[in-house]
Amino acid sequence: MADEGQRLDPQDWTAFSQEMHDLLDTCLTRMQSARDLPWQPKPADMRDGVALRDIAGSTPTAKVFDRISDEIMPYATGNTHPRFFGWVHGTGTPVAVGAEMVAATMNSNCGGRDHGAAEVERAVIDWLCRTADMPQDAFGILTSGTSQATILAMSAARRRKFGADVLKNGIRAYPDIRVYVADGGHSCIAKALEVLGYGSESLTKIPVLNSGQMDMDRLKETIAQDRANGLEPLAVVGTAGSVNLGYFDPLDDLASYCKAEGIWFHVDAAFGFWALLADAPWCDLAKGIGQADSIACDLHKWMSVPYDCGACLISDRDLHRATFTARPSYLASQDAGLAGGDLWFCDYGLELSRGFKALKVWTVVQTIGTDALGAYVTDNCKQAALMGQLAAGSEVLDLARPVVSNVCCFWPKAGDPDKIAATLQLSGDAVFSTTLVDGKPCLRAAIVNHRCTQDDIRLAIAAVEREVRAAI
Ligand SMILES: *Cc1c(COP(=O)(O)O)cnc(C)c1O
């Protein structure tokens, strides 16, 4: 064992440097070979934890790095592969590995205090707000994802509705609330209302029109009725990119209505936010998003920033800060020194200690550029449209709904969709997930994959057709 003050650092930096370079080479080789590395099931001894459980000894670094490379790295989620279309999983980017290495090297705590990392986050938030076309004084914070961002946004909505005292008194002292979202809205909204103490019953689902958009007339009727019954509308949630079908609510109309009614307008734009960077017609889908009081979006889905990273953007920066500033004296800001500065991100969210997520975003956006990022969003929408055409034209598939963005759902005419999805996952052909449309199970592709090509779409559909025919 090494001496005091040297216990955790490498004893031989030269040897360690070589081990790190070897590990980096292994990582780069893996990323370069992504096309040959679909998801594969983990081995049995990994499954029950036996193989990895004994970690309390002191094993040489080279040996541990070898175990990482051989026993862990091969069993990733598979979303780095070009035919991974399951759920909505971003692909990641090689250049972000460099940023992640530097972030770990700096080991910054981005909860507060005066240092460079906070400025990088400020720059990223500023870019996000400008991309959304939010007002000048909008601000925000990077989060672990849209789920976390939704909790922050609903907290800010509550702070605006009931004032500062709600932070002291809790929700008991105030009328019951309702939040409205179109059918097909994401489960993270109900979850946010659960943790805020309102319960998922306070979420009202509004039916959608044939276009898949929220029925505005039904929304207005429901809100009028609720108000007449003494309920307080806390927020309307617009969806930009619904999880099942990739549909977008009429954000412009929702924004005007909410403004006129004095209701907080939140947009769940987990992946749909990035339609803003695409070519027409897709860039028009998210039109009006900048008028929202709050937006939740992800960088780890489209944008392919490695997990995890999302953002909560709020149009009223002072209100946002007033929702979360509660610093005790040991965390007080000073005029000068490390405790100086007025940009403490712990004042904009729930976490006091936070990692340096901003660096990987700043690096990806700057190196790759918004043109190439937008082109890949456009590619994915075209690929989903192609998949829709192939499904509609297939003898053994039925397209479930018209494709509007990057999501395509279809029913096989024979066989069980779950079984077909599992077979194709295990064979390495493609990863589809499954969902229900009209209550009927279907295969679903949500394409946020920068490695995918139109040929991959054709291959994947051919593989599905093969399995459906086998089931006839
Ligand atoms: C993925 C997703 C979420 C949840 O985002 P996380 O980053 O996984 O927390 C919310 N809404 C929609 C539409 C999504 O696709």
TrEMBL record:
Q: Which residue positions does N6-(pyridoxal phosphate)lysine occur at?
A: K301
The protein's GO terms of the molecular function aspect are:
carboxy-lyase activity; pyridoxal phosphate binding
- The answer to whether UniProt assigns keyword Cell wall biogenesis/degradation to this entry is no
Q: Which GO terms describe its biological process?
A: carboxylic acid metabolic process
Q: Which cofactor does it need?
A: pyridoxal 5'-phosphate
Q: Does the keyword Lipid metabolism apply?
A: no
Q: Which UniProt keywords apply?
A: Decarboxylase, Lyase, Pyridoxal phosphate
Q: Which InterPro entries match?
A: Aromatic_deC, PyrdxlP-dep_de-COase, PyrdxlP-dep_Trfase, PyrdxlP-dep_Trfase_major, PyrdxlP-dep_Trfase_small
Family of this protein: Belongs to the group II decarboxylase family.
* Protein name in UniProt: Cytochrome d ubiquinol oxidase subunit I
Q: Which organism is it from?
A: Litoreibacter roseus
